[in-house]
């Protein structure tokens, strides 16, 4: 399989996965009261699968496909990876411990989403990332678009959808208690 076909397949899988998890999170958040037993069983599993995806996605782009991470990508990872690892850890805990862990990490997502929005908007030339990227001497531009799917979905947008999805699922799981 050629590198360009691997890249195209990876882009499509991650884009569809981002949208699918967001759709599930929105449905789970909306209908959790009517079908609470179904969503109480499924949401922790979807959260773990999504958590694995938000860790493997950026690592695949960087280490397998060869796209170096820019400064804003690293800032997003600082907030994404702890959510993912702690959500996976919380899955194997009892309900009280799970809720404690999830309540502690749920507020990392909105902060990471701010970096994701800033990064996405800067890629389209609406803001500047010189303050973030220029001060640390990073050689990779935060404004460059290395991956684009369907003409609008870039890596920061996929990360933003991941932040929103994880937040909604964690919020849905913890709002009952």
Describe the protein.
There is one protein chain. By secondary structure, the chain is mainly alpha-helical. It has one domain (3-174). 73% of the residues lie in helices and 0% in strands. The chain contains seven helices and no strands. Helix 1 runs antiparallel to helix 2 (36-64). The protein is globular. The mean pLDDT is 82.
Condensed summary:
The protein has helices at residues 3-31, 36-64, 71-91, 95-105, 108-123, 130-133, 155-174. The chain is mainly α and 177 residues long.
Set out the fold topology.
Blueprint: H1 3-31, H2 36-64, H3 71-91, H4 95-105, H5 108-123, H6 130-133, H7 155-174
For the structure shown, list the relevant keywords.
177 residues, globular, 7 helices, 73% helix, mainly alpha
Low-confidence stretches: none
Oligomer: single chain
Main sheet properties? none
Average pLDDT for all residues = 82
* Percent of residues in helices: over 70%
Percentage beta strand: under 5%
Distance between the termini: 49 Å
* Element pattern in H and E: HHHHHHH
The gross shape turns out to be globular
Count of alpha/pi helices: 7
Number of strands: 0
Name the structural class.
mainly alpha
Q: What is the count of structural domains?
A: 1
Radius of gyration: 17 Å
């Amino acid at each position: 399989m050629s590198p360009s076909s691997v890249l195209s397949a990876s882009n499509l899988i991650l884009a569809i996965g981002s949208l699918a998890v967001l759709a599930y999170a929105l449905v789970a958040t909306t209908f959790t009261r009517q079908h609470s037993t179904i969503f109480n069983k499924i949401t922790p599993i979807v959260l773990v699968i999504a958590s694995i995806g938000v860790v493997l996605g950026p690592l695949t782009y960087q280490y397998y496909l060869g796209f170096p991470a820019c400064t804003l990508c690293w800032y997003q990872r600082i907030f994404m990876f702890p959510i993912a690892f702690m959500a996976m850890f919380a899955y194997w805990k009892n309900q009280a411990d799970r809720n404690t862990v999830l309540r502690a990490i749920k507020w990392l997502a909105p902060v990471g989403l701010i970096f994701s929005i800033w990064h996405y908007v800067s890629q389209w030339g609406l803001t500047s990332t010189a303050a973030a990227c220029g001060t640390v001497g990073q050689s990779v531009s935060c404004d460059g678009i290395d991956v684009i799917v369907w003409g609008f979905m870039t890596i920061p947008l996929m990360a933003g959808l991941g932040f929103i999805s994880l937040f909604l699922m964690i919020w849905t799981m913890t709002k009952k208690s």
